[in-house]
Amino acid sequence: QVQLVESGGGLVQAGGSLRLSCAASGRSFSAMGWFRQAPGKEREFVAVIGWTEYTQSYADFVKGRFTISRDNAKNTVHLQMNSLKPEDTAVYYCAASTYDRGTYRQHYNYDYWGQGTQVTISS
Prior knowledge:
The protein is mainly beta. It is built from no helices and eleven strands.
């Protein structure tokens, strides 16, 4: 059974940091990414990392603040979030693709999803 389990969400003040983790089980994945969804908004792409850390891509609104990494031995992906802003408040979802699609910025590029973890940034 394939599962993605996120952890690390919480409440922090603006300017603070959080580190999200996503533990995958059941199989390995080609690419793993993070999306987020704020109340009343569509789910949006945040970051993705390929099998090797040389392949990374970020949404413009997180460049320079967020860093995605993965540990293939542990089948885990992390999202280090620094300089957090109130507008980063959302439920953050881990997503995983079973094969190399070449593009990963849309939700339909992924085969499995986690249940989400809440991130709340206070001003």
